[in-house]
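Our consortium's second objective concerns turning raw sequence data into structural hypotheses that experimental partners can test. To show how far this objective has progressed, the report includes one record in full. It was chosen at random from the queue rather than selected for favorable results. The single chain below, 269 residues long, was entered without modification.
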Amino acid sequence: LTTLTADLTTYTDQFSQRQAELAARAESLNRTFDSTQILSALNPGTLAGVLSFFLDALGGIFKNSLVILLVTVFVLVESPLFIKRMRQAFGDDHFLPNNVTSLAQLMISYFGLRALVNLVTATASGLMFWLLGIPHAGLWAVLTFFLSFVPYIGAFVAGIPPILLAYAQAGLGYAILTGVLMVVINAIAENIVAPWVMGKGLSISPTVVFLSFLFWMFILGGSGAFIAMPLTLAVILFMRSFEETRDLAATVIIEPETATPLKQDQSTV
């Protein structure tokens, strides 16, 4: 990240060269349409600003990931004692300790399976970046892996910096090729690999996934995207504990066949 930030001036110069090449080509071909808007959209200062913004955001993501990792470690270490205390306080048949246990199983299943899908996406993307000669291919592969925990959206966001670097190096056609290959890789991962892998664990409606990320990002900001799935799973799981909302919860999530059915709280009968 430090090296890439230090090279921003170089990339700004390359953006200027690409813009000049596009302007000369448009003039030589005598295009009937006005290319002013396209050239203004590829303004070197704007592109360099976008790249700088992503580098700052990437540093923030790594910092937030460290905090999330520390919290996760503490929760995993204390979770057996916490569940034991809950069972002693509420009883073995109470829905609260049962739901907490089921939620932990669902989260482990979902994120474990999702990590396999992300690994496929990141590996294929990293190899593609390396073969195309895009700088810092390993960094973008790691970014693709982590951002792919935000399904359908994260991989496309992770592809913006490599596309900008491809444009800086070899022009608009090279950037379009990079973008198309990223769309193909992400489509294969989400529509072929993900259903095959996730089908063995649990399945969540894509519409619910997308809406949950929008909702939790609206409530919690950017960090809400990374914890949207645990929060949504918790809400759905507790909805299944009550007769009034059980049917609604069943329409958006399918648990593994080996999952233990939740017991209804006797106090609600």
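The partners drew two points from this record. The two ends are 57 Å apart (CA to CA). Residues 256-269 have pLDDT under 50 and may be disordered. Both points have been shared with the crystallography group to help prioritize constructs.
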